[in-house]
């Protein structure tokens, strides 16, 4: 196992640096590392590490959502208003609809299998978007209309919304019955998740103000609480549905609201943790990819991915109707919603691990989506932010 860890860290960091030098997200290097070290090529990753793949990917997702929550001001969400709410679900919903239509035509899979694939593909990547939006907030691009805040909050909530849908679709598939009652559970899951996160965040803020301890200890406590949220979500099903991941992000947001000085320090701590979490997340999902399957589905997968992105961009424009955003600003938001990585890496292998007949197809399409859209979205954000956003003086009125 020690040899596997050493090889993973060395090779992934070296490839990540190479890709960074050519302005491509480092996660692509980590993904390729997993493919080559994994069981389908060199088979140099210890089986004990692979057996923990699901849990490790879930822990990485917790890190990125906590980090996003701690950087998010709840006051900004209130000021942005309706657009923040619509951006949280409309683009993803449009993309899922697009995947359901296209996947059935291109791969001849069932409606429910296409819906599961749509939920896997529909999430925007916090790993690519969050650090870039935090950087734009620091440089005050799009400050007056709070565009980085809109994208940061919308993208984070978009992920939680998609994961809830994915869970509902998977349960329907396992039970061999698609029930629209599963969809009705989504609002309840969101409400309970937000309530749990707000309450825990408020109590945590009071606790941290009263009892002084190292920030490292606070990070460990918050991480432990977040894991408990996920365990609670799984334990309460099917009697009660609670979005543990939404509770995680809301926990961070509530701490930022009540204790912003601490939140800023903790964001820096989680950025350091993310270095190792990111490696494990993308290396392990890369290791699950059978490269021999790629040629048989490659072209159709590419058509599906970019066709679905067209649906997503339409969803972005619908969400921003009557918001006062200029055409340039809407285009930037659409570009920022292109990259896929974190959620696809975290849930893309789940159908395969549960034995779904189309599991390899879903995982392969998810990995291709990361390889194609993460660089495209990252470069799009970096190259267009100054031109499309600039420094506006007009302020968007809450809707």
CATH architecture: Up-down Bundle
Overall geometry comes to globular
Gyration radius, rounded: 20 Å
**Number of distinct beta strands:** 0
Question: Structural class of the helix and strand makeup?
Answer: mainly alpha
Strand fraction band? under 5%
Looking at the structure, the CATH topology is: Na+/H+ antiporter like fold
- The tally of helices reads 19
Q: Averaged pLDDT, please?
A: 86
Q: How would you explain this protein's 3D organization?
A:
- This protein is mostly helical and 399 residues long.
- It has a single domain, classed as Na+/H+ antiporter like fold (Up-down Bundle).
- Helix content is 78%, strand content 0%.
- The protein contains 19 helices and no strands.
- The protein is globular and about 55 Å long.
- The N and C termini lie far apart (54 Å).
Q: What are the defining features of this structure?
A:
0% strand; disordered C terminus; 399 residues; mainly alpha; single chain; Na+/H+ antiporter like fold
In short:
The chain has 19 helices and no strands.
Give the secondary structure arrangement, pairings included:
Layout: H1 2-21, H2 26-37, H3 47-51, H4 53-70, H5 74-80, H6 82-87, H7 90-107, H8 111-121, H9 126-139, H10 147-174, H11 180-210, H12 215-236, H13 244-258, H14 260-287, H15 294-319, H16 327-336, H17 342-347, H18 350-353, H19 359-388
Helix pairs in contact: 1-2, 1-14, 2-14, 4-12, 4-13, 4-14, 7-8, 7-15, 8-10, 8-19, 9-10, 9-19, 10-11, 11-13, 12-13, 12-14, 13-14, 15-16, 15-19, 16-19
